[in-house]
Amino acid sequence: MAVIPWPLRPVPHGVPPAVEVTAASAWALMRTRRTVLPKRLVAPGPSAAELSAILDAAAHAPDHGQLQPWRFVLVPEAARAALAEVFAQALAERDATATADQLALAREKAYRAPVLLLAVVDAGRGDPRIDLAERLVSAGCALQNMLLMATAQGYGSALTSGRALKAAGLRALFRLGAQEQALCFLSIGTVQARKAAARARPATASYVSTLGADGVVLPFESAEKRV
Ligand SMILES: Cc1cc2nc3c(=O)[nH]c(=O)nc-3n(C[C@H](O)[C@H](O)[C@H](O)COP(=O)(O)O)c2cc1C
Questions:
Q1: How far is the CA of 43 from the centre of ligand 1 (A)?
Q2: At 71, which CATH number?
Q3: Which domain holds residue 54?
Q4: Residue 140 beta carbon below 6 angstroms from any ligand 1 atom
Q5: Which ligand 1 atom is nearest residue 201's CA?
């Protein structure tokens, strides 16, 4: 696992953090993560200890009311054939004209990436005042923790969705409860190839604004402009 340096700095309010992390190391990790699609993720995948760290990372997501509104289902090699049939069946159901090649491609997707997990969110578990939106935010945070941990370990990773997530066959295979939804797959493995150019990131001002005292929403100004 890559070692992130933790230089010491003064502890605010006398509350010692569990570990020391620098903004620079956190930023480096976040910038390093990028989607590597499952077709480019090959063996070796994370070791048992590395996978355990990835799974533990999910538990550090914020979770209003500690509902634990999400869960993950590992899909090991032995279960890939069953998933492949679900993918093919889902395609056949939504497109009766799907060719043998298209069905084979749908099946093949189940065999990509050494580690494959299904993320599931539960809209019904626990306090009903905590709505689905909050539960999805918590699930997204858990997923991001896992992606970042896999990145720190040196693996590529991706979230993928697709129409099969809503298929009755997939719900049955994963024994989803009536109030559960399959959110996306998380794939992890060694990067075989990656696109040379990283995605251009949106400018802060395109997604941040400031609420003015008079209620008018003002465009965001960078810190340099504000001081
Ligand atoms: C819930 C979710 C589902 C996604 N599903 C797919 C997918 O089915 N196919 C795909 O190519 N990318 C999928 N993505 C990945 C995005 O395309 C990717 O995050 C985006 O292109 C930004 O690239 P980056 O992850 O490298 O920042 C998904 C992302 C999320 C959050």
A1: 21
A2: 3.40.109.10
A3: 45-193
A4: no
A5: 27
